[in-house]
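hi! just following up on the protien thing from before. the input was this:
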Amino acid sequence: MHERLEQQMEFLREIDKLKMIGRQTYLSDGVRKENDAEHSWHLAMCALVLKEYMPEPVDAARTVELVLAHDLVEIYAGDAYAYDQAAQEAQHQKEVEAANRLFGILPEEQGRYFRSLWEEFEACESPEARFARVLDNCQPLLLNDASGGKSWREHGILAEQVYKRNERVRQWAPRLWEYLEGMIQKHVELGNLKGNGKAADSF
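and the predicted 3d structure came back as:
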């Protein structure tokens, strides 16, 4: 009992480090960038609020588990900026190694369970994993809109890149996509996103 509890407490201490992993998306006030723990919390709330917009039935509680677990590996692997192709290509192997290390802290069956949540999110094969992935794409869009496109401007992001990254939202949650596409077009018109904003026609 004591050994098991100590393993669980060690894991909980270790995942506090998620608060230290910075992301490139600004908070809604545009003053500072969010961290991974804030991102995960926001995704969990999105899962509870936006469930009705998925065309297939989803278990919101299961989706919450997925979004809370999926970025934990970034404690060791770090966050790869969504629009940095080279970083994205190198990220998966780093995250596999991080998952082995992090979930190995837990008692064996709990470690397997958390590893399975991470793998389910990555595979995008269950309705809940698809919903979680949709939310992971939607949330940065929401914050970029709220902060006046600040991160997009800083990185010189093209509208085509945003469309490409959100292909899954268009495919898996068309009602949400309709709203988000209007948001993207607004920022093209404002000059916060470069390009003509017509990349949606190409896929």
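The beta strands are 22-26, 33-35.
Confidence is low (pLDDT under 50) at residues 199-203.
cheers
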